[in-house]
Structure formats: structure tokens, C-alpha cells
């Protein structure tokens, strides 16, 4: 799987500005394929990341990048992410307002 670097590094929007304007940062482009823009996994084997804490998301991406956590796709994707990309992605997906319905 090749990473389209223009999507990852093309525009330099801060996550705060992007979230305030409702625009997803460019680094979410590749994430959308599996996690959708709102962080909802597109199939049952893909976790929902929308609404997770930024600290948790950052740690997972750093672990994939460092090889401490492995997944055939995420390991490849994460290895090209900079620290700024990770902060931006974690801030975006953490800013998603996830809601849950408990079973009756």
C-alpha cells in the first residue's frame, strides 16, 4: 500500500482551526478509507476511533510507527507519519462527538 504524501503533508492546517471550521485536516484523507471521516470503522474488524482521547490515539499511532504494535496496513501507514501528523490526527478524531445507545 503506497501512501500519497500530498494528502499527508499537502496543507498545514492546525487541528484546532480545522475543527473550528469543520474542515478535516488533509492527513485524515487516508484514514477515511477504513475509519471514515467521523472515525467509525467501515467494517466490523476496524475499530471506531472517533471520540477516543487524543492521548490514546497518539499512543496507538506512535506504537504502530515504532513497531511496538503491528497491523499489516496500520504499520505501513504510521511509519510515514510525523509527530505533527500524529498530533493532528489524534486531535481531529478526538474532537468527534461520539454518542452511544445502551441496550435495554
From TrEMBL:
InterPro entries: Cyt_c-like_dom, Cyt_c-like_dom_sf, Cytochrome_c_Oxidase_Subunit. Keywords: Heme, Iron, Metal-binding, Signal. The keyword Heme applies. It comes from the Bacteria. Residues 1-19 form the signal peptide. Residues 17-97 form the Cytochrome c domain. One of its GO terms (molecular function) is electron transfer activity. PROSITE patterns: CYTC (PS51007). This is Cytochrome c553. It comes from Paracoccus tibetensis.
Amino acid at each position: 500500500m503506497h501512501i500519497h504524501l500530498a494528502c499527508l503533508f499537502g496543507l498545514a492546517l492546525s487541528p484546532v482551526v480545522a475543527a473550528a471550521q469543520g474542515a478535516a485536516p488533509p492527513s485524515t484523507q487516508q484514514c477515511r478509507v477504513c475509519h471514515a471521516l467521523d472515525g467509525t470503522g467501515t467494517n466490523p474488524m476496524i475499530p471506531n476511533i472517533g471520540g477516543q482521547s487524543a492521548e490514546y490515539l497518539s499512543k496507538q499511532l506512535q506504537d504502530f510507527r515504532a513497531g511496538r504494535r503491528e497491523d499489516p496496513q496500520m504499520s505501513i501507514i504510521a511509519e510515514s507519519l510525523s509527530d505533527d501528523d500524529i498530533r493532528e490526527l489524534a486531535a481531529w478524531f478526538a474532537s468527534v462527538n461520539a454518542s452511544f445507545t445502551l441496550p435495554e
